[in-house]
Amino acid sequence: MSEDFRRVAEDGVLTVTIDRPQRMNAFGIRAAWELARIIEEADTDPAVRVVVVTGEGRAFSTGADLAGEAAEPQEALEAVNAYIRAIVGASIPVIAKVNGPCAGMAVGLALSADLVFVADTAYFLLPFVGIGLLPDAGTTALVPAAIGRTRAMGMALLGNRIHGPEALASGMVTAVHPAEELDGAVAAAAAKLAAGPREAIAATKRALNASTLAGLDDALRRETEAQVILLKTDDHREGVDAMLSKRPARFTD
């Protein structure tokens, strides 16, 4: 296991913590593949009944580590798609414990979970257009499925932040709690699921995902095809440089 994640299993609940607080839990391609493997392994382990994914420190995750490891665009996107598919396809329930900012591909990570518990101080952000890209990690399907097309367009095109209470009101998340109460609320939900009927929970998850996320695979394909092109543009290079330099971007395309 890499140093990017901590795993703790107790009473049927596997808690996976993204452990890169120095980067606000942004992570790269190697960690993305590892996260997919962790979910897949948990799903085949009879001792695991629930998975909880959260972040160390003050952030859930700010998405891709743009200053980190280099990778071919196609492989990087396939790695991200792998953990989205693993979470949605798992027979066991996955809970996202969003303890702080959740941005970029981490929005897909959170919304692909079956239950999303959020601290009242947390927010969701799709910053992709600001760096010359389109939203990925399944967010072009997951976000509108949760909050509708118009709100999703606001997030995707304008980069609107959706804070905890607004996320709850819009239907994006399961529950919002004061930050100091989040751990207890998630623990209670996870314990209830761990003690529940495994097959009935799995069947319910499959049925609801089939009804609401039937277009997820097509969305992942469209995102990948378009993103591979956009990642090679001057606008993307300018957007990333501007972000890392903390200056306004000057797009030309």
From TrEMBL:
| Pfam families named in the record | ECH_1
Task: Kindly list any coiled-coil regions of this protein.
Answer: none
SUPFAM superfamilies of this UniProt entry? Answer: ClpP/crotonase
Q: Which CDD domains match?
A: crotonase-like
A molecular function (GO) term: catalytic activity
Question: Could you tell me which InterPro entries the record lists for this protein?
Answer: ClpP/crotonase-like_dom_sf, Enoyl-CoA_hydra/iso, Enoyl-CoA_hydra_C
Which family, according to UniProt? Belongs to the enoyl-CoA hydratase/isomerase family.
Name the record gives this protein: Enoyl-CoA hydratase/carnithine racemase
State the species of origin: Tsukamurella pulmonis
What is this organism's lineage?
Bacteria, Bacillati, Actinomycetota, Actinomycetes, Mycobacteriales
